[in-house]
Amino acid sequence: MPERELARRAGLGWLAKNGMLINPTFGSYTFIGVLLTDLVLARDEPFDADRCGTCTRCLEACPTEALPEPRVVDARLCISYLTIEKRGAIPAEMHAAIGNRLFGCDICQEVCPWNVKFAPEPFDERHLSDPSRAWPAVAELMDIEDEDFERRFGDTALERAGASGIRRNAAIVASNLAAGGAQRTGNHYPEPA
């Protein structure tokens, strides 16, 4: 389902230049759900305004140039796609851009003024992680067995990449950290001290 377009048509926000839906109150850090029903519901007016204006921060900040023009995402270059959805090897020329991002990337959202200046802090105690599932050391993830991965992370978002994907990503992150090429971003692995 094209949930972002459906959300725009339902009046929940506009499609930003990074392809994300931005709600004027909450920014782009939202979850979009779709409910199919045969109930007759009141129709909401679509959100037709484009409040990105001339801002291109998301396009400029993307380290892989996965946003070649407004509202165009080249998934083959997107770090979120590479570290979560892609099966098999990640091309070597993409490793440096991945930096310390083990799973996903939010750079385009982290630089968006709607998230930085206007939206409330995206914090909800109900979403705090289980301390037993805190990020293990990169070296531990490089060697994690399938059974251990399934037991610890089988009911989390990490399951989408799978044990082999997480091992692959951890090896890239470890190499980048060792080379000093990883930059600190978001909640990803910090540079070594």
Describe the model.
There is one protein chain. The protein is globular. With 193 residues, it is mainly alpha-helical. It has helices at 3-9, 57-61, 79-85, 95-98, 107-110, 113-118, 138-142, 146-153, 162-179; strands at residues 14-15, 21-22. It has a two-stranded antiparallel sheet with strand order 1-2.
The rough form would be described as: globular
Order of helices and strands: HEEHHHHHHHH
- Uncertain segments are none
What share of the residues does DSSP label as strand, in percent? Answer: under 5%
Strand numbers in spatial order across the main sheet: 1-2
Q: Find the structural class using helix and strand composition.
A: mainly alpha
Q: Radius of gyration, rounded?
A: 18 Å
Biggest sheet descriptor: 2 strands, antiparallel
Task: Give the overall average pLDDT.
Answer: 89
Q: How much helicity do the residues have?
A: 25-40%
Number of helices: 9
What is this entry, summarized?
The chain is built from nine helices and two strands, in the order H-E-E-H-H-H-H-H-H-H-H.
Short descriptors:
33% helix, globular, 193 residues, 9 helices, mainly alpha, two-stranded antiparallel ribbon
Please specify the SSE layout and strand pairing:
Blueprint lengths: L2 H7 L4 E2 L5 E2 L34 H5 L17 H7 L9 H4 L8 H4 L2 H6 L19 H5 L3 H8 L8 H18 L14
